Amino acid sequence: MRYLSGLGALVVSFLVLAPAARATDQEAIDRAVESGVAYLKKMQQGDGTWAHAEIGATALAGVTLLECDVPPTDPAVQKAADAVRKASVHLTHTYSIALSLLFLDRLGEEADVPIIESLTVRLLAGQNANGGWHYQCPDVPDTEARRLTGLLKQRSELSTRPRPGDPQRTLDKAGDPQRIANQRKLTEEIRQQLEVINRAVGRRDGRADDNSNTQFATLALWVARRHGLPTDGALTLLNARFRASQNGDGGWAYSHHTHSPGEARGGKSTATMTCAGLLGLAVVHGAIGEAALRTEKPKDGEKPKEGEKSAKIPDPTRDPAVRAALTAIGSAIGHPVGKKGAPVLANGGRVYYFLWSMERVAVAFGLKTIGGKDWYDWGSEILVANQQADGSWKGDFSGMGADTCFALLFLRRANLARDLTLALRGKVEDPGEVKLSAGGVGGEGPKQPLGLKAALDSPEMFAGPKSEGDLGRTGKPVASETDRETARLVDRLVKAAGTKQDEVIAEMRDAKGVVYTQALASAIPQLEGEAHKKAREALAERMSRMKSETLGVKLEDDDPEVRRAAALAVAMKEDKTHVERLIDLLDDKDAAVKKAAHAALKSLSEQDFGPAAGASRDEQQKAAAAWREWWKEKTKR
Predict the structure, then answer these.
(1) How many Å apart are CA 261 and CA 497, to the nearest integer?
(2) How far is Cα 277 from Cα 440, in angstroms, rounded to an integer?
(3) pTM of the entire structure?
(4) Per the CB 3.0–4.6 Å rule, which of 39, 356, 561, 619 could disulfide with 406?
(5) CA distance 494 to 263
């Protein structure tokens, strides 16, 4: 990245840590990046956005273009930035808040600082008592929305000014980031909002959370520290969260589970969420390191007093939780590449999301290997082998270009928080190459590898649950055979015609096995007319036979078709266990899911508090508040 140009020894240290690709490999990687960037640009719409209901997809694409050395002045980047700024005024979607903050910070324009401050306040307000985040943060006060709108109108004047004191460009003689916290005073409006957050009791205790939203919020809060925002309280909660919820295998699950000594663990560990936990701990260690430098470092020209130790950043690899998690990830990333060749994935699934998550962790800790394996060589060979002819990568998040962004960010070894890597610049070792002296929470080390694997001769990158009742909170299960079988069933259903198609839908409705649920959900967007309607009905009927606990997982799924069907299934089962979650879904990003949640609530309650079709945002929120009030009164009896 451009921020570290001219830093001599520091740059050399980063180059030493970065694995050097073979010349032929590097040429292939460069071609892949060039082709991927061209694809991303073609995806951009006339209004500057990438096709998705949330602006976070556009912010992610903007960050990716910048990391791929597309100039900030490029029309694609500028149009994306304008779209993100406009959307930021009323933004409450957690992923989008975090990604917008990262994009605008990376863009580096002084006039965007008020937006970054405002987005940070929303993230701080969105953290719950468990230290985590869910999909939505609190609404933006009207006064704040008006303030930001006014600032955007003045933008043409402000944008011509240089951005002073950017900590990623300005470092002192010792190489320590100079914090804007010491240079910039927060505005009165921001300080007042922070005071309200600090006075809040309970911190949204009743809201669910997940480690996926939390990892994006975590990275954004680290970046926000550059702008003088007080994040130490949030990081304290985050630290407690990940230390209390680490599983015995060293990993973390999608949802938050706290453990007491000797208590059985809950929620299956996944590779991506284990990376989320590691990123959280990296940020906490980085904050501790910065505090040590600020409070213990002698002034310029002074030597430590006799008997006084100089500032020393704690070594994160002496942290048992970090060591156990790195060991767990090492067990998940497969054999060294080159022996059997990279797998060609029939369905990329969430592989690309995992690769980027792993890349962020490796770069933050400055690791060349994980589990004794060269993570970059392994991942880059997979990515080059699986790039599509149009320059894209296809997985669960390909529709908005996110999989392509994840792949490009990995190939570029993107580091959105270089000052975090600086803060962790003590000796960081790969536990896979040294003897593990301490392990996960409450134990000597991971007694078994994560329930995940990376097989170079198979398209299945992850092993997963064998039945739908054996899920963690990860959304879609990924069983050892599902990728190929799901693709086969989807193809069979989509290509069938007439009565044959009806027969296939009925078969997939009634058959046993995780793969049939996934296949129905994956096929629905490809069907039209009556077939589309019948497939949706079949999926809801199928899910109505699931246990209540499993339906709760499905209501949190990333696939809107699964969430929609789960909401209807809850009503079909007359299961009131999930009423609160149904109310949350009234604010879902997908219109069909909102409609299904509303229908389910009406069926379960024999009441109707809205929202009506075509309701405004305010009307939707009032309807949700009315439903919550009804449920509060109902549960008092």
Answers:
(1) 57
(2) 12
(3) 0.62
(4) 356
(5) 47
